[in-house]
Amino acid sequence: HLPSLRVQVLIRTIRTARTQAEEREMIQKECAAIRSSFREEDNTYRCRNVAKLLYMHMLGYPAHFGQLECLKLIASQKFTDKRIGYLGAMLLLDERQDVHLLMTNCIKNDLNHSTQYVQGLSLCTLGCMGSSEMCRDLAGEVEKLLKTSNSYLRKKAALCAVHVIRKVPELMEMFLPATKNLLSEKNHGVLHTSVVLLTEMCERSPDMLSHFRKLVPQLVRILKNLIMSGYSPEHDVSGISDPFLQVRILRLLRILGKGDDDSSEAMNDILAQVATNTETSKNVGNAILYETVLTIMDIKSESGLRVLAINILGRFLLNNDKNIRYVALTSLLKTVQTDHNAVQRHRSTIVDCLKDLDVSIKSIKGRVPLITLVLFTGVYAPSKRWHIDTVMRVLTTAGSYVRDDSVPNLIQLITNSVEMHAYTVQRLYKALLDDISQQPLVQVASWCIGEYGDLLVSGQCEEEEPIQVSEDEVLDVLEGLLVSNLSTPVTRAYSLTAIMKLSTRFSSVNRIKKVVSIYGSSIDVELQQRAVEYNALFKKYDHMRPALLERMPIMEKTATNGPTDIAQTNGETDSTILDTKHLPSITQPARRCNYHICFCLAGIPPMTAYNKNGLKIEFTFERSNPSPNIAVITIHATNSTEADMTEFVFQAAVPKTFQLQLLSPSSNVVPALNQGSVTQVIRVLNPQKQQLRMRIKLTYTHKGSPVQDLAEVNNFPPQSWQ
């Protein structure tokens, strides 16, 4: 064995290994020699052996047998031993191992050591892996060092205090007096760590947040000095003075200014200066500008400043760096609902991002900045055709990555663009012939062909040259989707329903009956249910089929796309699934297919069911033609307060003589200031025509606090239940 190998020699030796097995053999030999040395209590090479163990640990080999040796090195009086011992403790120990508690006394002694570098080692170790117990025992020493005049120790003590607060939040108040003069320090290291500490305290305590708002003018002065100061080689990064400190200050200002008029006003000018004076040719400048934009958008900033921030994001979209373009898209997505006019100026640049080959720029699953931006900016689209073409382009190039509500959103857009129906169905049909791998595109195309297949075969398109296609060719495509391995169960449901709809638009009714009949024995339960219900429609309810399958009317804004939710029982009332045997089941949509086929009866006045704490719930009514015993109630939830109501859930229950079904809500966020509404459909079966009574339960989060309320609704208009 090689007990006296220096660390550098060991590293060179290991690097000569040609195979993993050869490296493993070298490591095992060296570990055996190190173990032997530890057993012999060899103090001469303990420091060297622990250093070699740490290198092996970094390569992924077990080194836990060196933990106690690290403690022995920490207890040594030699600085070189302590340095390796503390490094080993940070790498090999954590609070899950009881052995770390043996360090507490050593760390306490070293925090009071006469040498600042030993004190610094102990602060770093405590701030890295100190447990709750250690933090409680040593917080007093950390607080003392936070007040010292030594800048080297003060910056380390500030970071250690951050760790202590995270581990034991109730100790936060202990550090409050020490923070008083932190921002008066000239040393940038102390300033940086002090801002990190203040940020941690503000994020964890509303009281601390209110207390530290008085520091806004001081933070503004520091930031102004940074951007106005001349060249300083000690802090310069690519021509910008200490960008790391600038970013930290901007983040703290964002927290302090959020929801506070005075603090926001105090920082408006400096944010404008940073936004206009920061150099953008280097990445450090872009990082500062990005933080500036986030701060402007989060505080109560002036409208001109918000426009400036959005223009910065617009410039980011033109950057060659994909990461910068991506953060610009995600940031625009956060602001598009509140500052849509400013975002609208960059519409053409946003659409140009569709040409990017990087799928993360086109769209990201679960977040989808581009598809959402395209849908939002469509409110101000130059034409319906432009909007439809743009969203279809997204679905064609990145359809597998868009979120689920993109499908109903596009369906609604198409439905409401009556003059574009022939053009849209032709475009989507041609897209299906080219590619059926993009499932959202296939779902929209299936829906569109089911609705407007007659326009497709009649060649009525005026927007572009019409194509010649027969009924059988259209049905071939839809039947192909039913058997394709690429099709998801949801896509198959769309396709089968589209085929069913075509039974009232095409003459090939016998072929459609045969297809529907085949899927009555499908192993897919959802598809089987659709097929069985559609078969029943052909037989028992054939006289109502044309009315039930007629074109969808223009739709109100909704994003319902999930499976139906069943209302929950409360008290003595009972709620169950609506008994569909009383209805032709075409009224029950295939999941996420958005086929809500019901027919309004005029003359039922709307009613206010709930109005409290800014939340207003209104009911509007419809009656289902096929079964007059069913009332269709749509709830409209609006919010007049200044803050969104999030995690909104509406539940309802009715007496046992009724049966009730709740469909999915359009959203779980009720926008502030009545800037939108959440809608949800309730179906109530009332076979005995009794007066309708309902108990409702509302839960939501408002300004960070959960809210729950119950209410009785007994004043339904007679027309809704008679």
From TrEMBL:
User: Chief location of this protein?
Assistant: membrane
| Compartment(s) | Cytoplasmic vesicle membrane; Endomembrane system; Golgi apparatus
Q: Which GO terms describe its cellular component?
A: AP-1 adaptor complex
Its topology with respect to the membrane? Peripheral membrane protein
Q: Which InterPro entries match?
A: Adaptor_Complx_Large_Subunit (IPR050840), AP1_complex_gsu (IPR017107), ARM-like (IPR011989), ARM-type_fold (IPR016024), Clathrin/coatomer_adapt-like_N (IPR002553), Clathrin_a/b/g-adaptin_app_Ig (IPR008152), Clathrin_app_Ig-like_sf (IPR013041), GAE_dom (IPR008153)
Is Metal-binding a UniProt keyword of this protein? no
Q: Which PROSITE patterns match?
A: GAE (PS50180)
**Any one Gene Ontology BP term:** vesicle-mediated transport
Transmembrane as a keyword of this entry, yes or no, is no
Which positions fall inside the GAE domain?
A: 602-717
User: Sorted alphabetically, which SUPFAM superfamilies does this protein's record hold?
Assistant: ARM repeat (SSF48371), Clathrin adaptor appendage domain (SSF49348)
- Keyword list, A-Z: Cytoplasmic vesicle, Golgi apparatus, Membrane, Protein transport, Transport
- Please report which protein family the annotation says this sequence is part of: Belongs to the adaptor complexes large subunit family.
Name by which UniProt lists this protein: AP-1 complex subunit gamma
